[in-house]
Hints:
Elements: H1 2-20, H2 27-36, H3 39-54, H4 62-79, H5 82-96, H6 99-109, H7 112-150
Helix pairs in contact: 2-5, 2-6, 3-7
Amino acid sequence: MYSLRILTISLAMFVALPAHSAEQPTRESVLKLMEVMGASRTGTAMIKQVLDTLIPSSPGDMNQKQKQAAEFKKRYQEQVNINEVLELTVPVYQKHLTQETVDAAIEYYGSPPGKALVAAFPAIQTESFEIGNTWGASLARDIIEKMKELK
């Protein structure tokens, strides 16, 4: 009986082994996937959105404030190297994807429907970011009100 359990466990491990030993994607293929997915453009747009959120326009002396904010944003965006974060995330892709998956995704994102999806990403991201900000602010107000009730 004990031998049968060991045999069953060994067989189960052997059958599961190919799924875990699938070929890890190369750095180059992951970067190619990021390229066809528009990761650089999306990251740059995200940085702009964050800066726009952190540096809102002020009602008083708007022209001067807007000018200063625009200059700061421009200088900051010039300093940010989006390729740095792309390189930092390569291991994450390698951890969770196989070479086969990355190759298939590159093929898809290089196709007309994939390119259309990539072209829509910035607008989807911008609108989703705005919705998330509004929702988050509402949630924060609700939490603050509920915390006041606890006192």
